[in-house]
## 1
Amino acid sequence: MPFGTRATTFTRPDSYRPVIPAAVLALSVVLAGCAGTAGGVRPADAARPAAGGAGAASAAASAAPGTTQARPPRTSADPRASADPGASTPPTPARLPGLGPRTLAEIPAEARQVVLVTGRDKNSSASQVVLYRRTGAGWEPGATWSAHNALKGWTDDHRAGDLRSPIGVFTLTDAGGLLADPGTKLPYDQGPAFTIGGTGFEGEPLAGSFDYVVAINYNRKPGTSPLDWTRPQGANKGGGIWLHVDHGGPAQGCVSLTKKHMRELLLALDPARHPVIVMGDAASLRR
């Protein structure tokens, strides 16, 4: 179901020094999450303060709300397309590799797509991503993509501003971005509220980081725009954790891929396959 029109703005950490066009500003909320995480509310929520007192929403004189993009005809994409054509095809494992019994038990039985994010170690911002598709023979892997996660690595108890990505299994139901819908089967919210500027932790420009995003359902309400700031577990548990376009450095809590790979992922994810993301450092995932 398409998202409704939203008026949105962001308040981001000073370290990112974002540049937000004045036309985008309609409401003001305090947010935490990605490298300059976006968050938003519907105009009807303007008078309601952010959850946990993290910020207050106030109406502005004008707004240029994000709009739901009319979706072009669906196309299918094989995330293995970017793999080395000369490489041999690995055997299809009966179960997802690198995961221990505790992690495997958290994956819903109906899941037929798994985005597996494996961090180098608990305190590293480097990780690898593989999209697995469940078939009659087992879990068929796609290509292996390099990625970034949060600056300080991973945590089992994510808190707003801790600069660590949450470890766990989370559903993937909603997408969006500054650019037009590339043809994903996920609901897609497109608009100028996904604009970001400034620089990241290593001085790299952040512009374009939110060209494509997929919301990770950590402390958020599924079925809403990635910009929705609802935090069911409270503001202190953070939120706004996304898959988004890599800007060449660590994120605040998100996972980032190259623009090409984000587009491939958007085209591959299918709500009918109940996609989830399994994310964490390698040692934690083996539990």
## 2
Amino acid sequence: MEERNLELDDDGKIKLRKRNEENAAEDLPEEEGDGIVLDVPDFEQFGGEEPTGRDDELVRRSESWEDELRRRKEEAQRIYEEGESLFAAGDYDGAGEKFLDSAAMYAANWRPWFGVVRVQTKDFTDFSGIYDCEQAYDKAFKRMPKAERAELADKYVPALSARAEECAQKREQLTAEDVREREDAREEVNAAYGAAKKRLFIALILFGIFLVAGCALAPFVHTVPDVRYLVPCIVCFAAAFVAAVFLLVCLRRFVPASGARSRNRRAGTTESGEHARIFAEEEELLRSIIEDFTK
């Protein structure tokens, strides 16, 4: 019987006392001292047991699984190499199918997933389809070892960085043009807005005056036998109708003028500003890809 001491705290110790088959049923003597004694089985005696039939079955299944995994890896590698050949020949669609087949055969390998991204981006030169392969992109970079990531960074990052800088320059240039175009048009836009607003208020006031006048005269129409109230009442309602039509026309002109004024105050609303936004989005995407390569 062996004892092994473990420090518990300042007040005492724990002693582990092994029991085997011979003394498992015996009452062992109390240990002296203030420590705590725990009886544990002696697992070393089980080390020499012969494996059972169930153990043999587990071993056979494990070996069978390893053989299947090895076969899948080899098959996936073969399909991947076929995809690389098609990609080098310019057959992007065929290469993409091969890369997907390889990933389906053995998904733990990062190379087929990265191949899908290369197909969608035409080897990182056209990013219009990159959002169609977000899942492949994430899987490729999550599985990619640091050494291979560094090699790919040396290959792709210089061109990506140059393109990002080009996008940044174009963005700044187009943003400046957007500001200048909006400032040049601001006086005309504000004048059109002011005129439309003035006409709208006049139409609204006229409509209100004639409508109130007609409503005020209407109760007196039947109080007298002649038409002294009827004619003015009809004239007021007719004028209110004309004013309502004029009000609608003014409103239709005011809404576009107000929208033009709002757009003129907002950055990126000109054609140059729209192009600047596109270059800004591309720059952000490129720098995100560069970060994934270099982190």
## 3
Amino acid sequence: MPETDNPHELGEAEFRNTVHSFEFWFEAVEGYLHGRPYGVSPGLRETELTERQRQGLITTLCNYCVGETAALDASSGMIGFAPDRGAKIFLATQVVDEGRHLEVLLHRMKQLGVADPDAEIEQRANRSLLKFKERLLEFVDARDWEASVFAQNVILECLEYTVFRHHAGTADPVTAEMLRGIVSDERRHMGFGENDLGRRLLMAPHTHDRLNQIKRELDSLVINTFAETLGELGVERDDRPDLAGDYLAAVARLGFRS
């Protein structure tokens, strides 16, 4: 077993044999989840939030739940039409990851005093993110493997990885540690998507044009989501990091540029 949980450090054959396994998944998550109920170390102290900060964090967590629910629904649906057993096994591990993410986010909302998370999510959900979820699940319902992997394991995972990593750097200690565990999972999910589509694009270059069209369709929803999330977190416009640039750079690794 390679001593890394970063798929980008593995060669293609080793990547497929390693990442498409529950053994690799278990060893990876044990390293950063063992002894951390709900992804947080016992005894980690809460910091006092102002009411404005608390409300902003709750709204942000509501939208994280929308994204994680989209990934949970999509990854579970994709198992039925995955092209090989290795992909099915990997997606099964991703379903577990996405379910855990949703659980810890809901738990964090309850810690912040939210009595009915489902009602709050319904009220506070980002419209752009809801449209993204709807489009992703259309690809899954159509059993379109390439579009589903691209929309979920490249675009959605890049979106979440970019936002969560930034937020973990500025959040209160409890939220930050929870998010760092999620980011570690998202890195694996991105690696799977990039590897799978990278091989397919080499074998069928014409696929690039179709996926690039999907990217152009979804980019505006992603960028709107970034802007709304930073606003919810109270980041002033002049102080906002270039999350859109980070996202576009990540997607560009597969040759998809604006």
## 4
Amino acid sequence: MLDKVRAVVPWLAVAAVVIGMSYQQGLFSLVGRLAPGPARAVALPGGGVSDGDRCGAEGYHRFRLPADVLSPPPRDTPAPGPRLVLGAYGFEQGPRTPARFTISLFVVPGGKRPLELSRTLGDGVAVEIEGPHGLVGGAHGLPVTWHEPTGTGPGHRMRVGARDGGVAEVALPVRALCPGHEGAEVMRKLQAPIDAHNTVTGQPPYTLTVSFSDPGVGEMRASLRSPDRGDVLGAGNLIPLDPETGRP
């Protein structure tokens, strides 16, 4: 028995060294940074709260969204008033940084005068990712980083110019994903399918929806007599449909 213990001890020593080196190199913490969150609402690194308590819910959104956000948008001219346009989005991970989705946003005033918004876009940005079986990840109260405009006006409000619009970015930590979902795989399913000629052949398997609520939106809509009402702006990753073929 003692001989067996002696035979095992060197391997335990090696294992201890490997564990120690892995800890120093951040490999275990890397696993933690890549792990999805629990099936309950939790505070997220950097700000915001996950929608973990809504995992699997179908059609869940933090805000009541306009119908054109939840269906493929037409290619015709949009109604007058402010709009939110989804820019580039992707998933990034590294050995020293938390894994996250990054989403670029474009804010279009839709009129001849600037659109004034709070720097935080109300109580923060909401993001939902949904698959065929319901919500696979999401969060609300997410902080936003502004790239244009770069400064704030009176009352710490962002003055989004009518000509240049606004450019911002929001990050969704991987901890906002529901259990059983992996960031890179979710990102792959957020992309529209393409054929051998790089032609889009359908809608993405997973939908991505970004929205916020700010009084400045409602004020601008009222001044322009827009048919849209309320303070909510939203955008999604659904591909616009051709009015003649009904396809992307």
